[in-house]
Structure formats: structure tokens, C-alpha cells
Design a protein that fits this description.
mainly beta, 1 helix, Lipocalin, four-stranded antiparallel sheet, 9% helix
């Protein structure tokens, strides 16, 4: 009997050892989250395992998606379907991440070319570039509950203060950044137009809500706006055509994709000085910082890859091919 029990125990132990690597890796993935990548030229959302740098699935979206964000609970992804040069988009795809399916497509009617998109306090804010507007979608109610015109051309990217709920948009055709005070009902309290450099596009809000960094691709510069008075307090030269900006989680560094130079530029947020320049190649665009602050992801449209940046030693540590022309990035917890 002792021999039988020993043999049975050995079988059980062997089974546990055999299964454990898979279960452990699945657990690691579920704890760390998933990387979401939009492939503009093939109209898909790629779900990527960030630990193994492996594409798990590709989900069809509306035509030529540009930016996306996840809901506060991480259950849904909202995708702005910008459209092609000949066919302006006017929809937002809602994708359920667990089932990997588009569960809804929000029709914006006459509102044309949705682009920048963020989540704040259970609401999804997004720009509508051709319509010179921004709008807000109530996730719980399942409807758009607020629309406002900026009066500016090319309203492209958007950020919302986590504490102040103040809204900022980059208006690339008007060379301005719009600052919009928190709304009450359907009416804004105040809107200020801040003049910056040529072709502002990339936009980032510091973690403490005190500064907005606006990269202007038209002159290679970047304006730093004081959110206390909505005035430009500093302008720095970044490169040839900076198009996206992202703060690290601790707020100490700023990552900027220079599309024409094909570099990722790392700036010290306090001194405004360049720390390092990484050669990404292939027209770098979208940037995402992993929630734990250890890595960043940079989409390279022409390379059809997303590159992984080690933020501890500022090196490129890998890449993953996600599809044709990747750009917008988001994190699903």
C-alpha cells in the first residue's frame, strides 16, 4: 500500500509541476494587465500580452482607428474611428475586452473625425476634429451627454485634470491649446485659448495637474503651460516633428516621439533638459507608460511594431509586431 501511495503522490506532484508554468504565467498576465494597440491601416485592435510580447488577438474596429482608452473598470475599450483621407469617420467602437468583441458602435451623426480620447470620473471625453468640438460619453448611461465647440481648427488631442477636471485640447490648425473649466450641466464656466507654436498635436498633463506639455510638430518645439493661470511659462526645442508626449508615472521624466527624426526623446521634467534620445525608427507615434512605471511602449507606424522601453536604464529591450501601422495605445487592467 505504501508503494501505491508513493506512486500516486509522485503522479500528483508531476501534474502540478507540469501545469504550474502555464497557470503561473496566466496569473502574471492577469495581474499586470494587457496592452491594447490600434492598427490604423488594417482597422484592428490588437490585444498584446505585455510579458511575452505576443499578440493574443486582433479585433475589427471601425475604419482607420487612431486613438483609444479603456473604461475605469478596465472592462471596455473605446476606439475613435477617425476614417481615411477620402472617408471621414464618425463613430466610436466599444469593445468588450474579455469577450474580444465589438459590442457597440456609437454613431456621432454629423460630428466628423473623432480623434483624441480620455477617461475621467466614469466619462469618456473625445475630440471631433472636423467639427471643431469635444464631446463626453456617459459610460453608465450609455449616451453622449455633452458636446461643446472649441472654435479652433484641428482639435486633435485631449487631456483632463484628475483633480481639477479641467479640459485641455491641442488645436493643430489654429496653433492653440484650449483650456476649458469644469462644466456645470451643459454649459462651460470658461474657455481660454492659449497661443503656442506651429501645429500643436501631442498633449500631456503632469501627474500633479500643474503643467500641460504641448508638442508642436510644425516647428519642433514644445510649450509648457502653467495650469494655474493657463499661460505658457516655458518653450523648449525638442526635435524635428514631435507628435506625442507622455509623463512617466512619477512625473520626473517626459517621453516625446519625434516622428521625422524617428526618435524617442527623454526630457527631465524639472530642468527641461534632454536626458537621452533613442533611435526607434519608422515614424514613432503613440506612447504608453506601464502603470508600474518600469516600461514604456512606443508605436512605430512604418515598422509595424511597438517597441518596449526599459525606463530604469532607458534602453530598447524588445518589440512586437502588432499589425499594419500601429499608433494609439492603451492599457487594460
Amino acid at each position: 500500500m505504501g508503494g501505491i501511495r508513493t506512486k500516486s503522490l509522485a503522479v500528483v506532484l508531476f501534474a502540478l509541476i507540469t501545469v504550474q508554468p502555464f497557470d503561473g504565467h496566466w496569473l502574471a498576465r492577469s495581474e499586470s494587465g494587457l496592452l491594447l494597440v490600434l492598427n490604423k491601416s488594417e482597422s484592428t485592435l490588437a490585444i498584446v500580452d505585455p510579458a511575452r510580447l505576443k499578440v493574443l488577438d486582433r479585433i475589427p474596429t471601425g475604419e482607420a482607428p487612431h486613438e483609444l482608452i479603456t473604461s475605469a473598470d478596465g472592462r471596455l475599450a473605446f476606439v475613435s474611428n477617425y476614417g481615411t483621407a477620402d472617408r471621414p469617420g464618425n463613430t466610436i467602437s466599444v469593445i468588450e475586452i474579455a469577450t474580444r468583441k465589438e459590442v457597440k458602435r456609437i454613431d456621432l451623426g454629423a460630428l466628423s473625425r473623432p480623434h483624441g480620447i480620455v477617461e475621467s470620473s466614469g466619462k469618456i471625453y473625445f475630440t471631433i476634429e472636423n467639427s471643431r468640438s469635444i464631446a463626453r460619453y456617459d459610460v453608465a448611461a450609455g449616451r453622449i451627454d455633452w458636446i461643446m465647440g472649441t472654435g479652433q481648427g484641428g482639435t486633435h488631442m485631449i487631456v483632463v485634470g484628475s483633480r481639477s477636471q479641467k479640459i485641455y485640447t491641442a488645436n493643430r490648425e489654429s496653433n492653440t491649446v484650449s483650456a476649458i473649466e469644469p462644466v456645470s450641466g451643459n454649459a462651460p464656466l470658461k474657455m481660454t485659448q492659449i497661443t503656442v507654436g506651429r501645429g500643436p498635436e501631442g498633449l500631456a498633463l503632469s501627474p500633479d495637474d500643474r503643467e500641460v506639455w504641448a508638442a508642436h510638430r510644425g516647428d519642433g518645439g514644445l510649450s509648457i503651460i502653467d495650469t494655474g493661470n493657463d499661460q505658457v511659462k516655458d518653450i523648449i526645442k525638442v526635435g524635428r516633428a514631435p507628435i506625442r508626449v507622455k509623463f512617466t508615472t512619477d512625473g520626473k521624466r517626459v517621453l516625446i516621439s519625434d516622428s521625422q527624426a524617428a526618435d524617442l526623446v527623454v526630457i527631465d521634467a524639472s530642468s527641461r533638459k534632454e536626458i537621452k534620445r533613442l533611435a526607434i525608427g519608422g515614424n514613432p507615434g503613440g506612447i504608453l507608460v506601464q502603470p508600474d512605471g518600469k516600461r514604456a511602449f512606443v508605436a512605430s507606424g512604418q515598422a509595424n511594431k511597438v517597441f518596449v522601453i526599459n525606463l530604469e536604464n532607458l534602453s530598447i529591450e524588445g518589440s512586437v509586431e502588432t499589425g499594419r501601422d500601429p499608433d494609439g495605445l492603451a492599457w487594460a487592467k
